Amino acid sequence: MIDRTVQPKLEAIKSLDYTHPVETKLKNGTPVYHINAGSQEVLKIEFIFKAGHYVQPKKLVSLLTNKMLSLGTASYSAYEIAEQIDTYGAYLDSHIDKDHASVSLYCLNKHLKKLLPVFHEIICKPRFSETEFKTLINKTKQEHSINLEKVKYLAREHFFTALYSTNHPYGLKLEFDDFDKISLEDISEFYQNYYSLINCKIIISGKFDPEINSLLDDYFNGTESFKTIPEKHFDLISPKEYKIKIKKEGALQSAIRIGKPLFKRNHPDYMQLSILNTVLGGYFGSRLMSNIREDKGYTYGIGSSIISYFHSSFFSISTEVGSEYTLAAIEEIYNELKRIREELISGSELHLVKNYLTGQIIRSLDGPFALSDRAKMIIKHGLPFDYFKKYVQEINSISPQKLIEMANTYLEKDMLIELIVGA
Is 235 a member of any domain? Predict the structure, then answer.
């Protein structure tokens, strides 16, 4: 019997073991990654395409194509699709980012055969209706109009442009006339070019029959209607401006962004820099939060992050503060950056951060759908499946000396772009 009066012994997490995807292929060659885990009779099927902003011929095309997939197919209207999904207690999700687009189906195992005909048509036989297209354009334009009143949204748009320039897909900023330049033909052509099963990877997660590939082969078995498009490549351009102020009349807050472009996720310094980022602003007890929120009270929240795409990543400190605190908040941000470059991190603080990070990694691998999300990141970035095992090893072995070296290599003040949006 366990003695409940005795506190369990606390031990640091020194190693990590988790379920890796098993790779197979459909008969047409489409890669399928199986994560057979969990105890509930549920599963998730996710189709991932290289159909993000990076390859779109015009702004908005990738976003609108992804959204329109579920707005009508050869056999089902948008209403009938929603009704089928709701009837069987399923959930349909879609996502678009700088590099990839995805469509996912969550359902009970026993309903998969009933839902696959609908899901198949969403992926392979969308009907791009002019009516649905105009409705979606108007809705998206209205959302953009509302967002332009928010300093947070403006800062995000202008910060990407500052990082990558308007000549790179990562740096494109949406303008109102972009909505008038796009047609239904653009959507249809983009779909034909990039939503091919030969441009796709499939992840299946949950508790499922290992023979599920046979079922998928019955529906997703062709590539003849698609053509292969050559890979696109855009050179990364160094930032041209490092101090940017965008006026927003009547704004009660200022949005602050400070950061810089970085290397890809497979760079040898990436893991070490991400640990340093956690100390600086990557969790609620971080230095930026402790100083600028807890001590000074300038903001409700502030943090730093490293955001990764396939061709690049970037470091960012972000916050929104009352307009009267803008300069004071920026000064304190630079004070914390100076401190992390000049002072060794104490053993106790580093111990806390190590425990936090290893705990977060374990939490992010808990359950089949969480494992699927981690596998998706690994597959999209072309990383080895033992990536998180190596990350835990890096966390446990890193020293204060190595972190201060990272800070002086990558976080010098003169390297950083400073963007302010506000009154």
Answer: no
